[in-house]
Amino acid sequence: MITVDEMDKLQGSIGIVGTGTMGGQLALNLTERGCKVVVFDKQHKQLHELQGAGIKSVSCLAELVAILPIPRLVLLMVPAGDAVDVVLDELMVLLDKGDVVVDGGNSYFLDTKRRGGVADKKSIFYYGAGISGGKEGARNGPAVMLGGPQEGLPLVMPILSGMAAKKGERRGFVYCGDDGVGHFVKMVHNVVEYAIMQLQAELYLIMRDLQALAGDEIAKSFTALNRGSLRSSLMNMNVAILNYRDAKDGLLLDHILDRAKQSGTGRWAANTALELGVPAPTLLSAVDARSISMQGDLRKSLQNLYSNKDKQAPTKANLDNRDYETALYAGIICAFAEGFSLLKAGKDHYNWASNLSNTAICDVWNCGSILEGEILDIIRGVWERSNGDGSILADDEIAKSLSRGESSWRKVVSAAIAAAIPVPALTASLGYFDGIRKARCGANLLQAQRDCFGAHTYQRIDRDGQFHTEWEEK
Ligand code: 6PG
Prior knowledge:
- By secondary structure, the chain is α/β, with parallel strands linked by helices.
- Helix content is 54%, strand content 10%.
- The protein contains 20 helices and 12 strands.
- Strand 8 (166-167) and strand 9 (170-171) form a beta hairpin.
- The structure holds 6-phosphogluconic acid.
């Protein structure tokens, strides 16, 4: 591993395919740190700015491969999906044994695993790098979650860790292990990001539609919330958004269409949680909330159909920022608890090296990623106190903080539900909290029902064995 100082004076060359928002900014970042960067983009995105920075661009992949010193390092910054396969198919013919390809897009981790297998057959080292931090992060230092073969690390690590964010001695870079694990960690990062964004959007909705706060009052409230454990990169963005006015439109946020798109990582994470049997209601509710938001026409027509409920403006609840702070903190803790459970289940299921510690994940997420924030220091403390496994909710400090704020959390959720304000993530996180700590849940009736209609048998709490009962009189 090169030293922190060496990382700022990078040696070596890199070819970047795709100079869109992230690719172009990474090219500028790497050039500034001394890397020799050559770029190729069919649509010549940001090419003028890149050439202005002295970055060489080529007109085809063959030219890119020909110009790079051997062993070659190529970074793909193209949209996840078929586009990666198209570029990779061409590169596999052009590259030689010992060359390195890194997919820096938000690819699905099993696609990365598959592609790595293809590259391996040609002795080309293939990596999946989850790169977080958006445009600003790409330009000045993202968080990089790298997965792939150990053998190619001497070529790829100095450059990818060198371009990453730096906070004191900490670097926003972690080598996660083999095949698709880097993209898996990024996928989990993204679904936690979805959940936190959704929780924050729900507080905004409560303030706007239940408390009838004006835009500037909501901005003030979010500014006050953006401190202590809730201080974060996403909250900084919320404060900027809630204060953004222009002469023509006033508060721009009021003019934005409320239909949230998604590029795939949140959905893949939700499917993986279901596949691996990981309870993650807060995470899944955030993905669902985006799908509901896309049903704009149905939402409008059903609001009219059920408008009597909405005609009487809901009565204001006696909620204050302390309540909001508690509910948001608790919801975020549940989101991270579910996210780390998913990480553990993935590591176990796919047999990834267990050297990927939860503290290392907290460190990389807290240095340049969209999730950067004080709460990750709190969660890092949980993993330092535990053996790195188990649930965040099992930590004594977390238990104290959640128990202290429980009534406020319930008050916020109850007030929103009573006023028909949709708060799926807040509700799901409270449901997760109640469900995961209930020693005797209602699944005994589920077992009896399953045995009743399908003779699936059931276990008992007072003796071993599998049992079946003829439940209904003949
Ligand atoms: C990040 C973001 C980023 C995000 C994409 C797509 O860490 O920088 O997570 O990679 O995933 O901008 O976002 P959506 O999935 O919301 O479309």
